[in-house]
Amino acid sequence: MDCSQTRLVKMGHETVTETFDCGDSDLNAFLQDDALRYFDERMAVTYMLLYGEHIVAYYCLLNDKVTFDTAAENERSLWNRFNRKNKIPNLKRRQNYPAVKLGRFAVSIHFKGQGAGRFLQNNSLRALGSPRRQKPGISRNTWKKKTEQKTKKTEPSPKIPKPPSKSRNSTVKHLS
Fold first, then answer.
1. Between 152 and 33, residue with greater pLDDT
2. Residue 74: which region, alpha, beta or left (left: phi > 0; alpha: psi -120 to 50)?
């Protein structure tokens, strides 16, 4: 697969999804029947990795919330540790925190094992502004290198020598 022909697009009304098959009928049905309706109702947004006109993989993002249950003692201590670790002041602590959920995620059976899923997972984390604390994954450049048959070796760039530094004495002008 030539990765220079891949692109990541947001699903729209003109997107053709009938040819996608990941081997799971529920995930196929979501992309073909429900994804556009979710987009129109502003419930979720679906992003697809395309190779030419073929759908390599897709993922769906939707809004969610994380709820703090005050009745559970062990959950209270967990939230207190989270708030202290992230330096959230007491006045700004809430029972609900906004979140983004990775709803559906599928890779076509024709492109499995080529790193497309990992690339999309990393892309979704970057799109959300996730900090770089996760384990390093596969970047687009690494994915291109893995999928290309031959890699061109580049020569190291030549070192440019530094210009000689001027001494202080050469810049001082004598006034008479």
1. 33
2. alpha
